[in-house]
Amino acid sequence: MAEHPTWLPAFRVYLSGAFSDMTIVCADTKFQVHKVVVCSQSSFFNTACSEPWAKSKQPTVDVSDDDVEAVKRMIDFFYRGDYQDFETDKFTQHAQVFAIATKYNIDKLAQKAADKFWNANIKCWDAEAFLKSVPIIFLGTPEQVLGLRDVATRCVRVHFIQLGGDADIQALWRETCTSTPTFTFHLLQSFHGNPLMGYCEKCGYGQAMEPHQYRCLKCRSRHATMKDFK
């Protein structure tokens, strides 16, 4: 992955460890970073480094509750405006990156993770891997943060038939809907708000559609609509 030219100098300094004035700790891993880079992109870290105790020495922020691979991607993003993709478990990993981006108020990283999640859905769909990421999205982020929730719902709409095929996937699908009711409700809301979803040559997959014409399957008349019952 080629870095954007404007990020190269900062990224090279990070790799060298020179002039670091802040440490981010995740379990056994320490990241020597630069406040001017990190704090300018995250209000959470900016607040942490603005505490009186942090001004007199090199601050250390412990994020050991988070997944270390997601933290690596977060720091990668701080310096490059992007992060290295995952080889496996793409749905789960991108969901974890989105979760920490939300937790630490890094809006652009959250958008980047959501975009990568959707790209994984298009390029390498894996029903089991997707369903395992659902609890991270719907239980690991605030309910009002809709970004990845909406993306996950669109993924289901695009692959709805596949989710009902294999018996093992059906079982996991049922378990996911039962254990994560907010996901089930969000999916129902999606169907209610946009009953039809399809492919647009301009916008791509998973787009809300408006039907041009309906036909009644009973009388075959084309004078039909989708009006609700009165």
Task: Explain this structure.
The chain has 230 residues and is mostly helical. Helix content is 53%, strand content 10%. It is built from twelve helices and five strands. The protein has helices at residues 8-16, 35-38, 43-48, 52-55, 68-80, 90-103, 107-123, 127-139, 147-158, 160-163, 167-179, 181-193; strands at residues 22-26, 29-33, 60-62, 197-200, 204-208. The protein has a three-stranded mixed sheet. Helix 6 (90-103) packs antiparallel against helix 7, helix 7 runs parallel beside helix 9 (147-158) and helix 11 crosses helix 12. The longest helix has 17 residues, at 107-123. Residues 20-87 form the BTB domain. This is BTB domain-containing protein.
- Integer average pLDDT: 84
Strand percentage lies at: 5-15%
Identify the strand order in the major beta sheet: 2-1-3
Which stretches are low in confidence, meaning pLDDT under 50 for 5 or more residues running? none
* End-to-end Cα distance: 56 Å
Molecular shape: elongated
The major β-sheet equals: 3 strands, mixed
Number of helices: 12
